[in-house]
Amino acid sequence: MNSRNDIDEKMKAASTEGDVNLLYKLIEEDPYVLEYIDLIPFVQTPLHIDASIGHLQFGTEIMRLKPSFAWKLNQQGFSPIHLAMQNNQKNMVFRFVDINKELVRIKGREGLTPLHVASQNGEIDLLANFLLVCPNSIQDVTMRSETASHIAVKNNQYEALHVMVSWLKTTRQRAATEMEKLILDCKDENGNNILHISAQNNDLKVLRLLLKTKINLKAENLENSTALDIAGSAEIKGILLGVGAKQSSKVNDPPILEDRFRRLEMYEKYREIKMMNRIGGYNW
């Protein structure tokens, strides 16, 4: 009988070569061979190895036998679909998503999802497919509170941003208008929405695209600056002023979170008093 190390080496060989027959020979020798791998929290599974190479049949068989492998992160913080994208194995990426659309939302290193990676690299075909099969993935943020839109703007991926903006405008999801505003107004860890970033980077093309949306022109970042405050050129400032953007000193601040909670607390007390009076036989 083969030792544990021998079986591990043969499994690596099967994964590298995409050898389904060898896979089943190893399962015959040790029915728990895949279970042992699954017990390890962070591990390079056979699916990780195969995803980097692109053997569709082997990868599909492994996913069928052990769906949990698709959600495993290796020691570097990457899932199989992340590795497939890193190695330009697009057919494998599409296969992953065909089998389980929720893999579009799996968070790898630094909270990056496949949608974030596609946005970062400007992979329009993957981006469009991800949004089609898993619309809610547009809501996911990285550990820096960045949406896929933030990532596109920060990496000068105009076409990727254009795809997402167009999708937000045309999606038939319930409350689509609110979704568009929510995503575009989302702020990163510095409190910047994507209008802040485009203005600061003097990115005229992105700025003009965003001004056709419902993005908040008066949003302030953590330094209490609006997009107009941090605009990188006189041209950008002129365009923003022309559409009604304001400097921070001229923005009417919305109620702070503390005030909102205070009002909510008062309302809850009112409801409690009203309920007690009803119990006591009094009607308001």
Describe it.
The protein is mainly alpha-helical and 284 residues long. The chain has 2 domains: 249 residues, Alpha Horseshoe (Serine Threonine Protein Phosphatase 5, Tetratricopeptide repeat); 31 residues. The protein contains 16 helices and no strands. Helix 9 runs parallel beside helix 11. It is elongated. The N and C termini lie far apart (82 Å). About 2% of the residues have low confidence. InterPro entries: Ankyrin_rpt (IPR002110), Ankyrin_rpt-contain_sf (IPR036770). Its main location: membrane. It is found in: Cell membrane. One of its GO terms (cellular component) is plasma membrane. Keywords: ANK repeat.
Query: Whole-Å distance between the termini?
Result: 82 Å
Helix count from the secondary structure assignment: 16
Give the second-level CATH assignment, the architecture of the largest domain. Alpha Horseshoe
Shape: elongated
Q: What is the SS-derived class?
A: mainly alpha
Radius of gyration: 25 Å
Stretches where pLDDT is under 50 for at least 5 consecutive residues are: 253-258
- Please, how many domains? 2
Looking at CATH, the homologous superfamily of the largest domain is Ankyrin repeat-containing domain
CATH topology assignment of the largest domain: Serine Threonine Protein Phosphatase 5, Tetratricopeptide repeat
Mean pLDDT metric: 90
User: What percent of residues are in strands?
Assistant: under 5%
* Percent range of helical residues: 55-70%
- Per CATH, the class of the largest domain reads Mainly Alpha
Q: Based on DSSP secondary structure assignment, what is the total number of beta strands?
A: 0
